[in-house]
User: Which sequence fits this backbone?
């Protein structure tokens, strides 16, 4: 197990305590369980999964993990209380621990399901506590803190990008002598990721042979269809380093393409170039997305997904590059985003080009360097 | 793509319509998105991921998928409306489509987060619609329907078990000549799963070398630590067939064990045998779990997780085998569960023995056949 970067987590806990102070809250309760993941728990204390976390306005942190041995080895908190002490009952844990901290006004993560939140709010009310649960509250604040990356986070994402690049660079040789089953491509990526020191994959590898690349997120994610057969194949994967995941997609074009496929490839390349030109600190994600939507429309296409998204502990986090996110704030230095224009056709297949970009003064620095690959 | 089992999904949609009728509801809205997975959407219409689904009391089904091409190929519904038509806005989709169906009383899945549910309920109220969102409502009813498996579901789980068994059977030979990095074991499982026709894995493979097997769900899930080195190694994986996942764990004991490790292995074997003796239609999950807890306690141990759980489209679904689930219904024929007694120690490592069992008259039929493996 890695040693715990104590000061990193303490700093984040203090930043959250300042939010609580400003919001006149005594504590916040976050929940990261199988039903609802919340990577802000890992962000705040290093515990990777399956725990409740209470942070108080005076900066005390109480972790309530499912696996206490794991907590001892990974987490930075003032107190660890096994979740099983409360029979894994959210209300019981909240009641006992928040009362113990003498709270009168607390915020509960908005990720909790409606009936659970209602029960918890009522239960705390019966003890004289006011519980707040809202959009734009603590979860949004944490995503805001996570939006601009700290040096340690950029280092992790940079390393994830390097591993991703190394693997993408090996794909043409892997496929030079002919197509391979999708699962062989996925297994190659998995093995190389581990050999190169990744913590894991950011998400299930999506590998799509030409007859399956029509899907945005191909389903099943991997089959034994022949990746790299004539047509458009597409592989999308993330490399996780210290919790932080890259996100890159390679489209492989093999053999003679038809007119539609050529138009799709060209449009995606144009869209990518246009976006790259527009993305810089001060520019607005929605405006960049709108410009790309217009470019696609002028070529007779429509992209069925967002132009991109922030990456970090989550594969998808703010900022979102989507025309409909009108009022979101502008790009800032130290954000890290995945840019991924793509087009899909039921018959012709899919083209997606995706790289990770670090926002720097005046523009971007690529953390991954994929291209649309053509093989004969 | 596989052909669509039309009658299977239509039957399930009719069963849900009957629930709506009985509850005096006009429609139900289910949500399966990245933030909150709800496999009941796949259960009801075959669409595997990322969609809203409306079922009305007259049995009409409206699917609102993110990927419409995927929906065309996999889903059985009366109408498909792209989610992007509503700018991927849940409220806009619900407002438009539920108004179109002339609903006055609807139920919304309880999995929706609290603030989203509040907004949706208020929005529908402003249109004269009453929206219900509750524990023990439609999601619970669907889990109830999913608890006893239909023939097609048992066939899928049986096949998943066979593939799992085949792979487990090959592990001793793989490790006969010495330990391997955890990632090589995981890649072996992944490759064999694909070769044997699995749709995919049910969850991330958990492979733990002796120094990491103390964790219930080891983190990171795979590293390059040496699996099968002297001590207790543990691998937990699920094979997914047509959406249905097996769940089995093998503990590998290598070399001379110490007294604590021997006691742990023996206690887990005893617990497994006791549970197997008790589990039958009519028995109560909580009582079986309590008997095992008592056995462990009498040996000086405490199991930090449930004794088992139902499997199906989800890796964890009802029934839960946990002493604290006091009032849950008894075992019935055609349930399929994973039985998994386990013990963990920070120094000695972990022992878990997990197999899948089909409930049959008078007892169980194993769908997987792992054992605790000893290698010299």
Assistant:
């Amino acid at each position: 197990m890695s040693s715990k970067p104590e000061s990193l987590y303490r700093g984040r806990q203090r930043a959250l305590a300042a939010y609580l102070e400003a919001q006149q809250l005594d504590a916040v309760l976050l929940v990261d369980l199988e039903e609802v993941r919340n990577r802000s728990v890992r962000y705040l204390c290093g515990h990777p999964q399956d725990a409740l976390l209470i942070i108080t306005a005076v900066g005390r942190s109480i972790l309530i993990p499912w696996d206490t041995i794991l907590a001892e080895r990974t987490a930075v908190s003032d107190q660890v209380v096994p979740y099983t002490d409360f029979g894994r009952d959210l209300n019981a844990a909240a009641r006992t621990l928040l009362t113990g901290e003498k709270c009168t006004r607390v915020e509960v993560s908005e990720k909790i399901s409606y009936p659970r939140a209602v029960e918890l709010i009522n239960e705390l009310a019966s003890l004289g506590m006011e519980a707040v649960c809202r959009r734009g509250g603590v979860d949004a604040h944490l995503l805001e803190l996570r939006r601009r990356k700290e040096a340690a986070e950029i280092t992790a994402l940079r390393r994830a990008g390097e591993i991703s690049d190394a693997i993408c660079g090996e794909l043409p040789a892997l496929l030079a002598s002919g197509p391979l089953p999708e699962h062989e491509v996925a297994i190659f990526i998995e093995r190389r990721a581990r050999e190169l020191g990744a913590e894991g994959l950011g998400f299930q590898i999506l590998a799509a042979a030409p007859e399956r690349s029509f899907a945005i997120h191909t389903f099943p994610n991997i089959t034994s269809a022949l990746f790299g057969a004539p047509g458009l194949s597409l592989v999308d994967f993330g490399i996780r380093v210290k919790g932080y995941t890259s996100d890159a997609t390679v489209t492989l074009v093999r053999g003679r393409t038809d007119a539609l496929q050529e138009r799709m490839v060209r449009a995606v390349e144009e869209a990518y170039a246009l976006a790259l030109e527009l993305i810089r600190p001060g520019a607005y994600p929605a405006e960049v997305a709108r410009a790309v939507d217009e470019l696609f429309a002028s070529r007779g296409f429509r992209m069925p997904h967002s132009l991109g998204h922030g990456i970090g502990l989550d594969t998808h986090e703010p900022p979102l590059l989507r025309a409909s996110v009108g009022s979101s704030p502008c790009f800032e230095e130290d954000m890290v985003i995945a840019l991924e224009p793509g087009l899909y056709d039921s018959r012709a297949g899919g083209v997606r080009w995706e790289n990770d970009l670090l926002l720097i003064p005046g523009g971007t620095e690529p953390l991954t360097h994929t291209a649309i690959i053509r093989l004969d």
Q: What stands out?
A: Chain B has a mean pLDDT of 95. The radius of gyration of chain B is 23 Å. DSSP finds ten helices and 22 strands in chain B.
